[in-house]
C-alpha cells in the first residue's frame, strides 16, 4: 500500500514536472503552483505517518529483517530518493514564491513612486531652477557691472579726446543705473547693463530746462533749450574759439566747427534722436580704444533714443550694454534722460524725467546699512522673475519693494524672515490692487530719506498712480486680478525652493 503511494507520487513528479517560476508568470499560474505544493506537502505528511504506524506495529525482530530485505531491493532506494526530491522541490518552490512576492511588492511600490515623482518634479523643478539662478546671478552681476563701468568710462574718455575741438555735448563720468547696478535682474541670460552718461553744454553754449505742460504724458517731461553764450571776454581761456554771437556767419562757417544748435537741435531744442545717432557713430569710431575691447566682438545696434551695444567674448558669452544720456536737474539726483517714457509716442525734443540715478543710490544705501545676511535683493529678484509676462511690470514690483524697504526696519530683512517679507510684498501689492492705486515712490513721498537730493517740488507734488490704466479700464483690472492670483500660486513653491537653497548655502 505504502509502496504504491510512493510509485504514484514518483509518477506525478516525473510526468508533471514543475515549470520555472519567475517574474514573467501570471497570477493564475502562481496560484496553481501554490496549491500543487500544498497538496504535495500534505500528501507527504500522510505518507510519513503511515510509515511510522507500520513500523510501530512490527516487532523489533521483524524490523531488522524487513530493513535488511528492503535495503537489498531497488524499490527502497527509489522511494527514499523520491522523498528527498519532494523535500527539495517544496523548499525550492517556497523560496521562489517568497522572492517573487518581494519583487512584486518592490515593483508596485516603485511604480507608485514613479507616478508621484513627475508631479512633484513638475511642481518644483521650475522653482528650484529659479532659486539657483537667483543665487548664481547675484554673483555674476557684480563682476559684469564692474567690467561694464570700466569699459564705458574708457569710451567717454576716448570720445572727449576725439571731439575736443568740436562743439558736441561734453560727456561726464557715466553712472551705472537700472536693475543690474541695483543688484538684481528679472532675467538671467539677457540682462541689459545700462549706463546714464550725463552731458553738459559745450563752450559757448548753455542748457536751459523748460517744463512742458501741454504734453499729455504720465510722468514729468521737459525740453532742453540750447542757447549761445558770448565768449568774447573768454578768448584767452578758450584759445582760438570765435564767439558765435559777435562774429560774421561766413567767418564762423569757414574757420570754426558748427555750433550745437546746427548739429543736434531742432528749433533750438536738443533732439534726442540726433544725439542718439551721434552716440552710435562715436561707438563705431572710438570703441577700439576702450579697455578690454580687444576681448570682445562689438556690434552697435540701431536704436532711436540710446546707444545699444552687443558684446560677444571668445567663449560666446553675450553682454548687452545700453548707454543713455541725460542732463542733470541742478545738483539733484534727478535727470532729464533719453530713456523712453510710458507715452505711446514721445517727441524727439521731449526728455522724460528719470529717477534712475536716485533709485540706484537708494539700493546702494540699503546695501551699505543692511545686515550682512540681508536678503532684500533676493526678494526683489524673485518678485521680478515671477512677474515676467504678467500685468505687473518689473518697475511696479520694484516700487512695492522700495516702499517696504523704506518702512520695515532693515534688520528684519535677513534670511530667517525671508518668507515673512515675501508675504508682506504680496499683501502690499494686493492692497494696492484693491485700491487700484500704486503711488510713485519718489514723488509726494513724505518719508523720503535725507540722503537723496530731490527737486523742491517732489515732496509737494501729488504722486503719480502707476495703476492708473487699471483704474480706468475694467478689462485691465480683471487681467491684473487674474495675474495676481497666478503670482501667488507660483510664488509659494519658489519661496520653498529658495529657502532650501539659502539653508544649504553658507552665509556671506
Automatic annotation (TrEMBL):
Transmembrane segments: 74-93
Principal subcellular localisation of the protein: membrane
Top-level taxonomic group: Eukaryota
Region (Disordered): 103-124
One Gene Ontology cellular component: membrane
Domain Mab-21-like HhH/H2TH-like: 392-445
Biased composition annotated in UniProt, kind: Acidic residues: 103-120
Family annotation (Gene3D superfamilies): 1.10.1410.40
Keywords: Coiled coil, Membrane, Signal, Transmembrane, Transmembrane helix
Location of this chain's protein in the cell: Membrane
Membrane topology (UniProt): Single-pass type I membrane protein
Coiled coil: 30-57
Signal sequence range: 1-17
Family recorded in the similarity comment: Belongs to the ITPRIP family.
Protein name (database record): Mab-21-like HhH/H2TH-like domain-containing protein
Classification lineage: Eukaryota, Metazoa, Chordata, Craniata, Vertebrata
Amino acid at each position: 500500500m505504502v509502496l504504491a503511494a510512493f510509485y504514484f507520487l514518483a509518477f506525478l513528479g516525473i510526468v508533471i514536472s514543475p515549470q520555472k517560476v519567475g517574474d514573467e508568470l501570471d497570477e493564475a499560474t502562481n496560484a496553481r503552483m501554490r496549491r500543487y505544493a500544498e497538496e504535495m506537502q500534505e500528501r507527504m505528511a500522510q505518507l510519513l505517518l503511515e510509515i511510522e504506524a507500520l513500523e510501530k506495529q512490527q516487532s523489533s525482530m521483524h524490523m531488522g529483517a524487513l530493513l535488511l530485505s528492503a535495503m537489498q531491493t531497488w524499490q527502497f532506494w527509489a522511494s527514499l530518493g523520491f522523498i528527498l526530491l519532494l523535500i527539495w522541490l517544496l523548499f525550492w518552490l517556497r523560496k521562489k514564491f517568497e522572492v517573487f512576492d518581494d519583487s512584486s511588492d518592490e515593483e508596485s511600490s516603485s511604480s507608485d513612486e514613479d507616478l508621484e515623482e513627475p508631479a512633484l518634479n513638475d511642481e518644483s523643478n521650475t522653482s528650484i531652477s529659479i532659486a539657483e539662478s537667483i543665487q548664481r546671478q547675484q554673483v555674476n552681476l557684480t563682476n559684469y557691472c564692474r567690467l561694464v563701468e570700466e569699459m564705458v568710462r574708457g569710451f567717454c574718455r576716448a570720445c572727449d579726446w576725439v571731439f575736443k575741438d568740436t562743439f558736441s555735448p561734453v560727456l561726464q563720468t557715466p553712472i551705472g543705473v537700472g536693475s543690474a547696478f541695483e543688484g538684481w535682474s528679472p532675467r538671467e541670460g539677457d540682462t541689459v547693463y545700462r549706463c546714464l552718461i550725463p552731458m553738459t553744454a559745450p563752450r559757448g553754449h548753455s542748457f536751459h530746462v523748460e517744463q512742458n505742460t501741454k504734453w499729455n504724458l504720465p510722468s514729468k517731461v521737459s525740453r532742453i533749450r540750447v542757447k549761445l553764450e558770448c565768449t568774447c571776454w573768454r578768448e584767452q581761456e578758450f584759445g582760438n574759439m570765435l564767439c558765435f554771437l559777435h562774429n560774421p556767419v561766413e567767418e564762423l562757417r569757414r574757420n570754426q566747427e558748427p555750433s550745437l544748435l546746427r548739429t543736434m537741435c531742432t528749433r533750438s531744442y536738443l533732439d534726442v534722436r540726433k544725439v542718439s545717432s551721434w552716440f552710435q557713430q562715436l561707438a563705431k569710431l572710438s570703441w577700439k580704444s576702450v579697455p578690454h575691447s580687444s576681448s570682445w566682438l562689438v556690434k552697435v545696434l540701431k536704436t532711436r533714443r540710446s546707444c545699444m551695444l552687443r558684446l560677444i567674448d571668445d567663449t560666446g558669452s553675450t553682454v548687452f550694454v545700453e548707454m543713455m544720456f541725460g542732463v542733470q536737474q541742478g545738483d539733484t539726483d534727478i535727470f532729464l534722460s533719453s530713456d523712453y517714457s510710458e507715452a505711446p509716442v514721445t517727441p524727439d525734443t521731449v526728455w522724460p524725467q528719470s529717477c534712475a540715478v536716485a533709485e540706484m543710490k537708494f539700493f546702494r544705501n540699503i546695501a551699505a546699512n543692511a545686515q550682512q545676511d540681508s536678503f532684500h535683493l533676493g526678494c526683489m529678484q524673485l518678485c521680478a522673475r515671477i512677474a515676467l509676462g504678467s500685468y505687473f511690470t518689473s518697475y511696479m514690483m520694484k516700487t512695492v519693494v522700495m516702499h517696504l524697504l523704506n518702512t520695515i526696519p532693515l534688520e528684519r530683512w535677513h534670511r530667517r524672515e525671508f518668507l515673512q517679507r515675501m508675504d508682506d510684498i504680496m499683501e502690499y501689492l494686493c492692497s494696492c490692487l484693491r485700491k487700484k492705486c500704486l503711488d510713485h515712490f519718489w514723488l509726494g513721498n513724505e518719508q523720503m530719506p535725507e540722503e537723496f537730493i530731490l527737486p523742491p517740488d517732489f515732496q509737494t507734488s501729488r504722486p503719480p498712480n502707476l495703476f492708473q490704466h487699471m483704474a480706468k479700464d475694467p478689462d485691465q483690472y480683471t487681467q491684473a486680478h487674474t495675474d495676481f492670483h497666478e503670482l501667488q500660486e507660483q510664488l509659494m513653491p519658489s519661496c520653498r525652493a529658495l529657502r532650501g537653497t539659502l539653508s544649504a548655502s553658507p552665509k556671506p
